[in-house]
Amino acid sequence: MREQLDDLDFADNIALLSHSYIQMQHKIRCLEETAAKLGLSVSKEKTKVMRLNNINENPVSMSKGNIEEVSSFVYLGSVVNTDGGTDEDVKARIGKARAAYNILHRVWKARDIAITTKLRIFNTNVKSVLLYGSETWRSTKVMLGKVQAFTRHTT
Description:
By secondary structure, the chain is an alpha+beta fold. It folds into two domains: 64 residues, no CATH class; 70 residues. Helix content is 45%, strand content 15%. The strands form four sheets. It has a two-stranded antiparallel ribbon with strand order 1-2. It has a two-stranded parallel ribbon with strand order 3-6. Helix 2 runs antiparallel to helix 4 and helix 2 runs parallel beside helix 5. The chain is elongated, with a radius of gyration of 21 Å.
């Protein structure tokens, strides 16, 4: 029997992975039952379903009703979508890095802070935000161009 990844858990975020509709329904029921035993409940409003390569269009449901189906969601700060691309995630990361850069506008304008110090601040507070999760990005010329354009524009 092959071992396979069934779910991704981090703090209060869970991503259930299934190969079939029946398997997903079973996992949802087990999650609800286990949560109830611990005095917890699964939020229908915060629960979403995303299908990949699935011809079964029956709605996935939980005890509170059908679960909303989405074409993308954010998991641990990264955008996951049905096409498996990274464009949305790169765009979101650039936006977050731009916000981090703008918050530090007084640092960039300050004449009494050395350029080497400013570069260290940029690398630790802006570049790290930009590149968080980048190890999962698909490297394309377009994606690399967007990241390089941001760093050139801000440095």
